[in-house]
Amino acid sequence: MRWWGWGEDHDASPLSARAQELVGAMLGVEPSAPPAERGGPESVALPAPALDAPARTALDKAVGAEHVLDDHAARLRCAAGRSYPDLVRLRSGALDHAPDAVVRPADEAQVAAVLAACAQSGVAVVPFGGGTSVVGGVDAVRGAHHAAIALDLTRMDRVLDLDPKSLTARVEPGLMGPELERRLGNAGLTLGHYPQSFEYSTVGGWVATRSAGQASTGVGRIDELVQAVRCQTPAGVLDTRDVPASAAGPSLRELVVGSEGVLGVITAATLHVRDAPRARRYEAWSVGTFAQGAEAMRRLEQAGAHPDVCRLSDEAETQLTAAMGSSGGRAERLGRAYLRLRGQEEGCLLIAGFEGSDDDVIRRRGRFAEMLRAAGGVFLGERWGQAWRHGRFAAPYLRDELMDRGVMVDTLETACSWSALGATHDAVGAAIGQALADRGTPGLVMCHVSHLYSSGASLYFTFIAPQERGAELDQWRAAKTAAGDAIEAAGATITHHHAVGRDHAPWMPTEVGPLGLEALRALKTRLDPQAIMNPGKLLPDA
Amino acid sequence: MRWWGWGEDHDASPLSARAQELVGAMLGVEPSAPPAERGGPESVALPAPALDAPARTALDKAVGAEHVLDDHAARLRCAAGRSYPDLVRLRSGALDHAPDAVVRPADEAQVAAVLAACAQSGVAVVPFGGGTSVVGGVDAVRGAHHAAIALDLTRMDRVLDLDPKSLTARVEPGLMGPELERRLGNAGLTLGHYPQSFEYSTVGGWVATRSAGQASTGVGRIDELVQAVRCQTPAGVLDTRDVPASAAGPSLRELVVGSEGVLGVITAATLHVRDAPRARRYEAWSVGTFAQGAEAMRRLEQAGAHPDVCRLSDEAETQLTAAMGSSGGRAERLGRAYLRLRGQEEGCLLIAGFEGSDDDVIRRRGRFAEMLRAAGGVFLGERWGQAWRHGRFAAPYLRDELMDRGVMVDTLETACSWSALGATHDAVGAAIGQALADRGTPGLVMCHVSHLYSSGASLYFTFIAPQERGAELDQWRAAKTAAGDAIEAAGATITHHHAVGRDHAPWMPTEVGPLGLEALRALKTRLDPQAIMNPGKLLPDA
């Protein structure tokens, strides 16, 4: 992972001249020139390491000295997630937080030994998988302790059991997305969980953050894909019964899922897998307006005729997508003429993806197309659908390119009922827009429906604006706070799939209620009596 | 509800002479004569009421004196659930437990007032809906308190909100199954949750016990049908965000679902509803063996081609079902000849039910039938399917008839992975059979698969044996313990949908692990610091 941004250089592609021009025109400012050269990772100042000698000795004993790293590169690698403010801080050349050491356990017994050592020596523990949090979930906050370590789980990457008859896989937390899919694929299976961070995130991270993938409308969120989970806490092991369903009391599994490392370390999870798809079909449609498209999505979902991947862009996102992808060529002019003929030149873009057996894809796609056409949808063909699939993990690279040119870009998401969808879309979009204008940096806010449920859907917002030089974080916080408050006021959830971390913690009192917070705190106190686990995340300070 | 058994006289039907003969032949003993006459409810001795005057005054103030009942009839009505041991105790003419009063709140504010009064006066609170628990979930255990009340929630039976666009209904806990479906039906909607207790159980009870309905393979368990829940605890209100999905931390909803009244009182739940079905098709099939049938069910479920209702009887249950339903007539002889011709005279019965729109039922049934036929299934027609549907809530009446004749009959259930299904079926069946034989009362054990999941299924066992007169409860406990231990040893769950109550509490340490129990206890201590909520249930004594 590039220390200052997303992914690796060979997967990045530079912003085209046309796209730069477009962004400039939209924001009303000339993008600044990208940095002529960038310092190396050693240019970022980190806080002085604070791990005391007894703690270091205890950690060396727990995992072996060669797996306790405190060099600058290792500390920097685990010092931040990949949110917009994380990247602003990284690029600023100095971080307030960095782990005092990176500790790499090989198995659950070593995790237990590390937690015992840290509880004994007053060291905070930040579980670390791929480090792709966009909500400050891996910041090395020390809490009341003298030091903090990042517990790098990527050595724990085994498939512990594969049961093709029951379609389950029991895996360790440090397995990365592509490697998980490769190993399942060898057995003709797939998990099918594709968050945008897929290439750099881990199973443990997905489970700990209640992640959703791009195809979760079809295959289900990670919460629905986890059958059982095992969690090493400072007080011992929580291990839920590995059965398809149970009525034996409250679900401890659902307590560990989404716990973001504040209760303990997920050391294994049993996941529901499925046959690897033989057929894939991705395609694009146009619908008249966002409201009409959302209503069509609702009817499709409630009729069980939804695609596996379904993204409905609002007018603003559709226009930007079209403009960014525009070639100015003849095919496109013909396409526009066709849409104009159908009365949808100003329509909204809908991407639909189907995966499964050949029969299954044909059958489901046919039913979907029939219903969507009846609702006024216009088929645009497979080209844009395939282009979306091809670029499905690329958006964070684009963010890097824009930040290089002085543009702020961030995303946030929520979910609400179908009844509240239109009002929530409008209120959150307006709040962000107003907050940006109030800073003197008017920007562009756009949105798409990203996941469908029978009772509602998620809304995924993207906003861009000229960066407020020297006050980038204040500018960002103003927009973020306005959005969060609008989401809260709309009765929606503060996060559909990004999790809570530090950035969403201020809204948790409303999200779960004051007594809900107390209940979570009581659980944490029992499982982590010395509060060493991931301080400052999920639960706002009391 | 009949004080000594299930339901109401007008829905009961006497055991046919042929069925009596058959049971006698199977068990090797002559059924005893049914009681010539039965005493009235006043013949059952209850413990002396213990509610002290200050507590009574406080409760009168909380809900109005006319809603605090302490007459014998009211106390008896809420004194027991409807398990086999409950009925043995009721019929014995004396109960160890009965509520000292029955308190009937009108709304959440009154629930809060009752909990405050009870915490203040040292009174245990047993939430009570329909009183159909089969695991001792409503026994009026006083715990460390001087008295116990049954909190009868049936006055809280409002539909608080109906959102046909988002397909959700927010309802109060005391709404009974038939009335809920009637009110939803008026809006063209259904919940579709049909536990065998449907006619006498409540929404609050379903949610509190993590119930499954007969059609849960199709519409999902109650855990999947609850979007949000509100719970009045002694420490305040827990209220989960009413959104389709969220990544905001551990799920408090999943802590309240299945909490069996030990944390607080569920005062509202938002449920996922759906369009009322226009078409229904119930039919019967025969498959060669239980193992072949289970394998076919697995493939159907994993291909998404399962029915909404699916019950696969093993050889023993099939033979008894056939014999009990036998008319000895010509159609039946022809049917047997047909099966013999297809090599399945000794086959296993499979009941499949489909509900939905006309198109949907035709499409899904067609795919199911094609796959099942390819797996060797023989179609038996709709008659037996319709007969099953007609009698779907009647089994408890049959239990009363058998008990009247000196026959023990009980059921228990579990769930496990497909890989473990055959071994679990055999081990649990053998354990029950051996336990009954060891008591000198050899019996009959049969089983069906009742619910399908991608990773496994539930197994529902029925066992009958001659009652051991004077030691009915010891006899029952021997069989129950043997079954529970076998389930535990098989790695299955102690309960798929009957919940924990008192009867399954001994297996909770294995089910959730020692630390899981401690986590639940910590949660209870925070929410119910004086431990007034439903003592003795769910959590085994520490």
Write a short abstract of this structure.
Chain A has 4 domains: 40-152, Uridine Diphospho-n-acetylenolpyruvylglucosamine Reductase, domain 2, CATH 3.30.43.10; 159-275, Uridine Diphospho-n-acetylenolpyruvylglucosamine Reductase, domain 3 (2-Layer Sandwich); 279-390, 2-Layer Sandwich (Alpha-Beta Plaits); 395-503, GMP Synthetase, Chain A, domain 3, CATH 3.30.300.
What does this structure look like?
The structure is a homodimer of 542-residue chains. By secondary structure, the first copy, chain A, is of the alpha+beta class. In chain A, 39% of the residues lie in helices and 20% in strands. The longest helix of chain A has 21 residues, at 418-438. In chain A, helix 2 runs antiparallel to helix 5 (108-121) and helix 17 runs antiparallel to helix 18. In chain A, strand 8 and strand 9 form a beta hairpin. Chain A has a seven-stranded antiparallel beta sheet with strand order 15-12-14-13-17-18-16, sandwiched between helices. In chain A, strands 5-6-10-8-9 form a five-stranded antiparallel beta sheet. A four-stranded mixed beta sheet of chain A has the order 1-2-4-3. Chain A has helices at residues 17-27, 53-63, 72-77, 84-92, 108-121, 177-186, 203-208, 216-219, 222-225, 253-256, 290-302, 315-325, 330-341, 358-374, 383-390, 395-404, 418-438, 472-489, 508-527; strands at 68-69, 101-103, 123-128, 147-152, 159-163, 168-171, 189-190, 226-233, 236-239, 265-272, 274-275, 279-287, 309-313, 348-356, 378-381, 407-417, 444-452, 456-466. Chain A is globular and about 75 Å long. Chains A and B meet through strand 9, helix 10, strand 11, strand 16 and strand 18 of A and strand 9, helix 10, strand 11, strand 16 and strand 18 of B.
